[in-house]
Specification:
Nucleoside Triphosphate Pyrophosphohydrolase; binds zinc ion; about 25% helix
């Protein structure tokens, strides 16, 4: 998350992004589980202009159900009021440092309740998770994976998943693509950052292309398939984040110009995670 903010918040982020990507990728073979995924295009990054004050303006929270986590993990509290009042601390009952029981209080000098260890005093801070993925273009088609795991089993998604410690966002997107689609890809440019504050997730999606025209389902996928734009299964997508991403992509295709998008996905009150169309896309910026 910090890396993305640093990249996107910089007034000269084109330079910053290229600069930041070169070094991680030169060492990627040292940290990747798949040493063949080592390349990224250094020449296709578009120039972005963000004004910091505009980019970091206050985020709006809504009172809605959560969106399921992309890897089938447990969902956080179902309403933002619960989330705010609990401060995501209810699930932390034991200290990760010493194993002692926690109490849930607002620490001195802070405003939100946290899980505080009653034995060693460690405060458990929880921060949003980064989900990274690829929107892969190949011969005017895009690659989608049918999920072979819950949640949203049997529905289509871009290859994406949680970013790991020790990798950059682009490295994570390449890794997830390899794991879910057995596809080697080259990153072309960042395409979208979509925040879902209610569930503490930020999606970072990259435009990418296949290095070789080969792909097949990984363990988390039952099928991988290239879709022409007119055949994208919009009625069978797994998550609101994927629907938003693909809608933005289609809009760009109509204008003939790829852009970078930032936005906040707020689900409508009272809707379930499976109702992927019940959202608003707020604070949408494109450049
Ligand atoms: Zn402790």
């Amino acid at each position: 998350m910090l890396k993305t903010i640093q990249i996107l918040g910089s007034p000269s982020c084109c330079f910053s992004l290229s600069h930041r990507l070169k070094k991680p990728y030169s060492n990627f073979h040292l940290i990747s589980r798949n040493p063949i995924l080592a390349a990224v295009s250094k020449s296709h990054f578009c120039a972005f202009r963000f004004r910091k004050g505009r980019f970091f303006r206050a985020f709006q929270m809504s009172h809605t159900h959560s969106e399921p986590s992309p890897d089938g993990g447990p969902s956080p509290p179902s309403t933002s009021s619960a989330l705010l009042s609990a401060g995501f601390t209810r699930k932390i009952n034991f200290c990760q440092l010493c194993g002692g029981p926690t109490k849930h209080e607002v620490p001195d000098g802070e405003e939100k309740p946290r899980a505080i260890c009653t034995r060693c005093g460690k405060i458990a801070y929880e921060n949003p998770k980064m989900v990274v993925g690829c929107l892969i273009e190949h011969e005017n088609k895009i690659l989608l994976c049918k999920r072979n795991i819950q949640p949203s089993h049997g529905l289509w998604t871009l290859p994406a998943g949680y970013m790991e410690i020790g990798e950059s966002a682009s490295e994570g997107a390449i890794r997830e693509t390899w794991e879910e689609a057995n596809a080697q890809v080259e990153i072309m440019s960042p395409f979208a950052q979509l925040d879902i504050p209610l569930i503490g997730q930020t999606y970072v999606i990259f435009l990418a292309k296949l290095k070789r025209p080969h792909f097949s389902p990984g363990p988390e996928s039952s099928e991988c398939k290239l879709f022409a734009l007119e055949d994208i299964p919009f009625d069978s997508l797994a998550f609101s984040s994927m629907l938003v991403t693909l809608n933005l992509y289609m809009e760009d295709k109509k204008t003939g110009r790829a852009k970078f998008h930032y936005g906040i996905i707020n689900k409508r009150p009272g809707t379930s995670p499976s109702e992927i169309r019940e959202y608003t896309l707020d604070s949408h910026m494109r450049c």
